[in-house]
Design brief:
Chains A, B: Pfam families: HrcA. The structure is a homodimer of 338-residue chains. Chain A has 338 residues and is α+β, with helices and mostly antiparallel strands. In chain A, 47% of the residues lie in helices and 17% in strands. The first copy, chain A, contains 12 helices and 10 strands. A 5-stranded antiparallel sheet of chain A has the order 7-3-10-9-8, with helices on both faces. The interface between A and B is medium-sized, with 31 and 31 residues. Chain A binds a DNA duplex (30 and 30 nucleotides) through helix 2 and helix 3.
DNA sequence: GTCTGGCACTCGCACACGCAGAGTGCCAGG
DNA sequence: CCTGGCACTCTGCGTGTGCGAGTGCCAGAC
């Protein structure tokens, strides 16, 4: 077990390194933090921390930098979440309040997060699978062609074309529309399949084919996981990454373009609060030199999607976690209101 | 006026520089292109080209690189558009054919363009202002709250909440829906305002307020220029930009995040064919070291939106122009079919 | 007139060298 | 267990030098 002072040393190293981006040595440490001991003592502590794998030196006779494991300890034990100041909160709120629709909410959230954290922001659209149906609309485009429009409680709209096996009359259409809505409106997506199962039976034989087609299209839309979309922003902040540029940011940019990767990344974080994944804790190789700070957000009490930021492992964890948490909270409020 | 051979020299310089990314000297030129003259002669030609401002040397006694003006001449006079090969065309087509909805078409187009050109791809969503209305749907969410859904011929769906000044009955709603659609379905957006102008008069006094509100919301949606969206991709290709990294790509990334900037950029290109804007021809400062190759595309004969790529001024113009043109053509086809 | 070969010149780049500064590990003493 | 001291090891930086690529110009050939 590490002594109290060694933990303090680790914390000081992380803080200094995050601030200066340069390996920190024993002398600088004692000067900037009043640890009450001499550099030599700190050196011993550092040697111990290095043995345990919390810090490392890039080259012999250079200062130390934290390892992923060191950051992990720092995040878990040594640092809290830095809450936003009152002016910051007000700024967040007023920035988000101007949004006119869901796209706009997401877009503003991305910009906001990117600006606050000066990192790359990722915001997942409120997920279909966990939200509820507000309305299902059916439009007749041609005798045997319908358009299915699904509206969710988060304001998201999905539409699909449906080619009917047989022409479908206006009255049947109105009937189906009414029945469908009375059953599924306000219900959770996951409940929909069982709720509409027996619906075709209520129709004439000639219409059943079409009804079934409509229903299966609806179900497809609901479960279509890969339709989960997200928006990213603040990629210009990657240029702040470090000095050894191209090699580091290339894979990051590539990973960011693979939405599947990002969705998986966000999805893996099961923690109800703010989740931090540091360096190699991220499964994707291109993100091995980054940390991902994410959190769920939702319109009601429950989380329906994730948002977060991607930045260098050398980041201001307390500040970033505070910003991410605050933004998630306010986005939730905005979504609940609309 | 420049002699024929001098133009050939310029062309050779551009081609070599694009290939090698290094300043090209007189000796290398005569070796790689059979110009039929000696290096000394080429040197004289190069001096002339430099006097005219088509090429420049980064440092005394280094080779020459083309200037923006040089690239301009190259694009205008010296190079054609390199058509795609048959296999490439097939690949484009089959890649785009799998798309399920408009978002997917745009997303696939972006990926495709980025891969083909190895540059940053930008695709504007089919613009509202030039397309036609397929259907307008009105849903009652609460006694005095409606949702307006607008579906365009390009498959785009826009929705807006409408708060009514007074409760609005189901029958009035059905009436309004029917009247609205009979007037505007299939019409161009620009014609809609005059077509619905007198619509409130057909309703009872108590409903007129709501009808007017709905109409103004509809018109707002139609003209809302800033709702023009676009998708970008292939930003990882920026890492191929050059050696002097951060300084160059930082402003480019920033410009790419400003959708307004990009939309203006695409909008400025009035040419019906492929438009190329080189270096300082781009108004935005951050893009002064990039070239933008863009073209309009559309579902019918007419262009409804733009797409293009952003890359270093040192790019393969014929190939890029070919790829952009080909992709635009096939996207147009796909949109027309759906 | 135009092209060519030759020649002297200019730079940028890569490499070696040396030096200062920061940081370390270790040890003996408080 | 902490501290001061000491010898050692690196990195980074500035300087100097040689090499090679490329240029401009000029006199002569076609």
């Amino acid at each position: 077990m590490l002594s109290e002072r060694r933990l303090k040393v680790l914390r000081a190293i992380v803080q200094d390194y995050v601030g200066t981006e340069e390996p920190v040595g024993s002398k600088a440490l004692t000067e900037r933090h009043n640890l009450g001991v001499s550099p030599a003592t700190v050196r011993n502590d550092m040697a111990a921390l290095e043995d345990e794998g919390f810090i490392a030196q890039p080259h012999t006779s250079a200062g130390r930098i934290p390892t992923d494991k060191g950051y992990r300890l720092f995040v878990d034990k040594l640092a809290g979440v830095k809450p936003m100041t009152a002016p910051e909160r007000r700024a967040i709120q007023s920035f988000l309040e101007g949004a006119v629709d869901l796209d706009d909410v997401v877009a503003r959230t991305v910009r906001l997060l990117a600006q606050l954290t000066r990192q790359v922001a990722v915001v997942q659209y409120p997920s279909l699978t966990r939200s509820t149906v507000r309305h299902v609309e059916l439009l007749s485009l041609a005798p045997a062609r319908l358009m299915l429009v699904l509206i969710t409680d988060t304001g998201r709209v999905e539409q699909r074309m449906v080619d009917c096996p047989a022409p479908f009359g206006e009255s049947s259409l109105a009937d189906l529309r009414a029945r469908l809505n009375s059953r599924v409106a306000g219900r959770r997506f996951s409940d929909v399949p069982s709720l509409v199962e027996d619906l075709p039976e209520a129709f004439e034989a000639e219409d059943r084919g079409t009804v079934s087609t409509v229903l299966s299209t609806l179900l497809e839309t609901l479960v279509e996981e890969n339709e989960e979309r997200l928006m990213i922003g603040g990629t210009a902040n990657l240029t702040r990454f470090g000095h050894d540029f191209p090699l580091v940011i290339r894979p990051v940019l590539e990973a960011l373009e693979e939405q599947v990767v990002l969705l998986k990344l966000l999805g893996e974080a099961k923690d109800p609060g703010v989740t931090v994944r540091i360096g190699h804790e991220n499964a994707h190789e291109g993100l091995n030199s980054t940390s991902v700070v994410s959190v769920g957000y939702g319109s009601g009490g429950e989380a329906v999607a994730k948002l977060g930021v991607v930045g260098p492992t050398r980041m201001d964890y307390p500040g970033t976690m505070g910003a991410v948490r605050a933004v998630a909270r306010y986005v939730g409020q905005i979504l609940a209101e609309s």
